[in-house]
Automatic annotation (TrEMBL):
Biological source species: Magallana gigas
Keyword field: EGF-like domain, Receptor
Organismal lineage: Eukaryota, Metazoa, Spiralia, Lophotrochozoa, Mollusca
Protein name as annotated: Scavenger receptor class F member 2
Gene Ontology terms, MF aspect: scavenger receptor activity
């Protein structure tokens, strides 16, 4: 079980002295005697996103900075200055922190062990991530196992993708389609006249020619063997003159 975190809230002076405790914290810095700081500057880095704002007094005026975790701010030190910051203590780091190294808020400093993500490494990477490897901040999978796609690999590839493989970003079938299918996600059906039920994934044109009695790029035209209507019947999309039209033209010329 992960160790309990954030059992006490503290307010510290710039020298680490505890001046207030409690939950929630209510603290206002006292006024200080003027001290010459020679207009120096100091960089302040908060410990955590939930930390209270940094507070200090400068020239007898109360100042407050709302800082986010891992961000920094530069404070000009003038005649009067004393800084205070909120902090929290914990009774141990999460076992999922690398080397069990965490700050006072329980946030893992070196990152998470494989299979976990989040500030405290208590979130589990999706089981559809390859080797349970995911981004330690967002939880997004680096790569998906076969058959899945999306940031967290929770979306299913089309069942007609060849080998069940599709692009992790957009779900398009990257290795082509199963026999009889075409389209980016193999959601279209090849013409029934295609030989071996094989057609181009993008255009749908039959790749191996046509079955007997079928013709055209898409093999969607069929000969009619009836004597009274010899020639061609249109079945589906037609481009250019039919074979029957060509026969009629040659007989009249």
């Amino acid at each position: 079980m992960p160790a309990a975190v954030m059992v006490e809230e503290l307010v510290l002076t710039g020298r680490g002295k505890v001046v207030a405790t409690g939950c929630p914290l209510q603290f206002t810095p006292p006024e200080k005697s003027p001290v010459d700081m020679r207009r120096k500057k100091m960089t302040v880095a908060p410990l955590a996103q939930l930390a209270s704002a940094q507070r200090w007094r400068a020239r007898r005026a109360l100042r407050t900075n709302n800082l986010s975790r891992r961000s920094t701010t530069i404070i000009s030190l003038s005649s009067t200055f004393e800084s205070y910051s909120a902090s929290k203590t914990n009774d141990g780091c999460n076992n999922n922190c690398i080397n069990r190294d965490c700050d006072a808020f329980g946030f893992c400093i070196q990152g998470c062990v494989d299979g976990y993500w989040g500030d405290t490494c208590d979130s589990v990477c999706p089981v559809t991530c390859i080797e349970l490897s995911c981004n330690k901040i967002t939880g997004h999978c680096v790569t998906c196992i076969s058959g899945y796609w999306g940031d967290t690999c929770t979306l299913l590839c089309s069942s007609f993708c060849y080998g069940g493989v599709c692009d992790k970003t957009n779900g398009k079938c990257t290795l082509g389609c199963a026999p009889g299918r075409n389209g980016e996600i193999c959601d279209r059906i090849c013409s029934s006249g295609c030989k071996y039920d094989t057609c181009n994934q993008q255009s749908g044109i039959c790749l191996k020619g046509c079955k007997q009695n079928w013709s055209g790029d898409y093999c969607n035209r069929i000969y009619d063997t009836a004597e009274e209507n010899a020639g061609y019947q249109e079945l589906g999309q037609v481009s250019g003159p039919s074979h029957y039209d060509q026969l009629q033209r040659s007989q009249t010329e």
